[in-house]
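Hi all, posting the design record for the shared folder.

TITLE: backbone redesign
STEP: 1 of 1
STRUCTURE INPUT:
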């Protein structure tokens, strides 16, 4: 399990950063100013984690049990909540109600994993959903150019096997991109510049934490 430090943020969109040698790096801008709303400890809950809150929420839209948690942490209700598994030392470095600064979690050049909900495409065909090549468009093909073709076998087992690509709901699913490089950290503006694209539409919630598959997940001391 990934226990590297991380934050939750809001995807603002994409931009580009020019380096000193003139090259251009396409980046996704993530606005992250989370607040510690709660804690999980090994003694009480069996694991260590921080509960992070992001963006303001009206009190009249907050249910009483959740409002009590915010009151205990002395913070205003938040729109999004995310539990961050972490090490005991990292959890102990934050108090309830404290804001998480980006420069204390990330640094330029670090590799991170970004998780978000992909844009929903609705009911899509096999060419868009599964990248099928489509049927031939010559020799008399008529109204069958974007179909999936045969889905069954000849005789045995006499049924459609599981996992056959068919039309259906596409997108609106949890997607993670791994080992993206942090190009720039602007702690004063609570902005994080991540190289390349990340899942989700503009203003959607994303989860950024140190990379788990490649070296560079942990922030250097």
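Okay, here is what came back for every position:
SEQUENCE:
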């Amino acid at each position: 399990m990934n226990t590297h430090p991380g934050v939750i943020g809001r995807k603002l969109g994409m931009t580009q950063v020019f380096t000193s040698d003139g090259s251009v790096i396409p980046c996704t801008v993530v606005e992250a100013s989370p607040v510690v709303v709660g804690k999980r400890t090994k003694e009480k809950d069996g694991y260590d984690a921080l509960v992070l809150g992001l963006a303001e929420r009206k009190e009249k839209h907050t249910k009483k049990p959740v409002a009590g948690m915010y009151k205990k942490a002395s913070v205003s209700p938040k729109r999004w909540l995310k539990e961050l598994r972490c090490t005991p030392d990292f959890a102990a470095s934050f108090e309830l109600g404290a804001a998480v600064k980006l420069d204390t979690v990330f640094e330029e050049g670090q590799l991170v994993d970004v998780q978000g909900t992909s844009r929903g495409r609705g009911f899509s065909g096999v060419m868009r959903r599964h990248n099928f090549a489509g049927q031939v468009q010559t020799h008399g093909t008529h109204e069958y150019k974007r179909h999936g073709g045969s889905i069954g076998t000849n005789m045995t087992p006499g049924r459609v096997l599981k996992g056959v690509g068919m039309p259906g709901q596409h997108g609106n699913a949890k997607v993670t991109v791994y080992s993206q490089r942090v190009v720039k950290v602007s702690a004063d503006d609570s902005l994080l510049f991540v190289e390349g694209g990340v899942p989700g539409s503009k203003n959607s919630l994303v989860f950024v934490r140190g990379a788990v598959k490649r070296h560079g997940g942990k922030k250097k001391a």
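COMMENT: The first helix runs from residue 42 to 45.
Let me know if anyone wants the other runs.
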